[in-house]
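Think of the structure tokens as a kind of shorthand, similar to the way a musician reads notation: each symbol stands for something richer, in this case the local conformation of the backbone. In the example below we present two proteins back to back. Begin with the first one, reading the sequence and then the tokens, and try to describe in your own words what changes along the chain.
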Amino acid sequence: MKQQQNYIHKLAGRTSLLVVAIAVCTLFTACDNKEHKLESALPILDSRGVYVVCQGDEQGSTLAYVGFTSGATVGDWFQPNVGRELGPAATDGLVYGDKLYIATGAEGKVEVVNRKSRKSVGQIDMATLTGDTGSTPNGLAAADGVLYIATPQGVTAVDTVAFSLLRKYSAGVAASTLAVSHTTLFIGHPANADGTGGSVEAVSLATGESTTATGPLASSPATIVAATPYAFFLDGGGNGVAAGVRRLQGATVTTVTSAACMCIGGTKLYVSKPSATATAAPTLNVYDLQTAEERVFTTDVPPFPCLMEADPVTGHLFVASYQKDPQTGLAAHATGCQLTEYDSSGSRLKTYDIGVEPRAIFFDTFLNYVEY
């Protein structure tokens, strides 16, 4: 129990966010020296809204946005603000410092947008940057002024000011997902076509030394959340092993609980429980990382939840879900999805319409300076 109490941090998206205000300051201003700071002000983490990256269909990807003050939903925030369509097969996104980053898989680029002006800063062309033909961004993470990009050729570290190549990790080994703390880079390596070969790697940012966990509990890693000295990740299971949330410590992997999707908010792990059948009603549970107690969070759940994140400021949970196909009763992958907002007690607040095939949820977080 004492060990569990040592690793909990406030988390948002795929990088650790310490909500203790002074600690948060280093994370959000590492690459954002233009933020106005007052000597007699206290930096407080705040959020304006939530973004949802939707992979879309043959018509292209979209970036949905819900503003918390207005409550208005913008189905495609990117095109009217940036002035061009978001590239197809978008896979991930995040806000870091004064920039918004969106990975577009089919184009092999990372879009960079100024968070305040909403204008394009430029594009990171992965093939040009790395020299690797077919280098496409699968996932994003950021910490300490560095953007980490998962690609089929490994992980690329990029400076967030000059957008120059800093380093490559696990070169030549495909990376499908990743997370980063201030000390460790966690990389999920996908399984081969036969379902074998998946693994999760932990790389020391100080020394470059790495430890890799393999085996049936790490055969199909998906979402990873860094929580030094641990990492938690969703594993799809297979070959007789049930899907679930795993905890990684060194090369040791243990199962925390069964899950179909997951996220962490503060000291709470939120999971959608696997349904007994394809049409069975799902439930959302919350697992306390300090006490190891799990309980039902809510049964008021859309039929096919596929993605979730917790707002690091309010603690509200946002769950993206497929709608039900009226003919088959199964998840409708070709139609628009929904985003449901819950408060910290599990009460449903609102439901918003978003795009097709959601791939990432992240928040428009920033530092608000309050004089004291």
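Once you have a description of the first chain, move to the second and do the same.
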Amino acid sequence: MLWSAVMKISFIGQIHIFGEDAISRRLRALSSELTQRRHTVRLYSATERSIRQWQGANVLYRPSFNPTQPGGWLYAAISAISSAFWKADVIHLMGWKVAAFAPVIALLSSESTLIWTISNVSRKTFVTRLIMWQAVRLCDAITVPDRSVQWQLRREYGVLGTYVPDGYSAPALEDIPAKTWKLRKGQYTVVLADSTAKLRAIVKSYTQVKSKKKLVFITDKKTAAMTRLERSSRLLKVVEVQSNRERSSLVRQAASVIIADERAAELMLLACDSEVPVVAENLPRLQEIAGTTVSFFRLKDVEHLEDLLREVVKQPYMIDIQPAQKRARKHFGWARIFEEYETLYHYPVVRRVSVDSIQPKSFTQPVVQ
């Protein structure tokens, strides 16, 4: 790719553009940042048939063999070939199936920069080994959104992906009022947990704090076990939500947040950005993002958890939230994360090689004997 001020960038492999999953959110954030810088962006979708443009980016629908399961091999093949014939400066791959067509892209558009972002490590088979073997040789960069995927990729395939975390952005719309869920702003604590067992342990410790604030558990679907736990505790309130806006609204208006779920990393960043005190389980992804700016607990250490909850719930004014807010904004805002991707998009130009003309040269004249 011969770099210019304006680039043509194509994103392929994402099933949805307006979904709630991490890939869709990443796609929208990168596309928005690129179009703001006047780059030309194409998004190949397997589901959005009627939409042609979104915030300056062109949206192109590509079919699948099975309409009930969009994003199959037909979609991957047509998207890859279309991007190659478009002669995009950068082709950003978002899945394993589209990565299988890297040789086709390299053949039809040899000057394009190929970036592959791996969000999950597929089970090791002959096909996945072949895809990885090709990608290592043809892609200019392979990125991963978190360290656990990076470790799995290294263990399974011996490939070290470049770590570029997913960022976060403050909601563009106003928060949904807390009274929608019969709550009062700043008078409840949000808990995010990935299992009923963790929720039960947190509820038990929270009860010992003897706070009057409600403990609000956010979930996509309320199960029978959650209902029984809610009935047995006067403080627990289980709230079903269907959108990221509902989740972010509940988190941003809470008095404090308890996190025991690695998937809630973005909500943790949002809470820190909104100056909401956070305590989190000592999970690798959460520790990696927050560093030393939030307090961590082990579920088995009940006394420590109770002390942390007592401090956060009853004395939130004693917690210095500024370091967490500063870290979130400085390191994990999408504008900052975009800089990492932008460097990769320009990779063939900015990388240093042994014959690069910018390498320092010595002009010392040899001494004549």
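Compare your description with these statements about the second chain. The longest helix spans residues 22-36.
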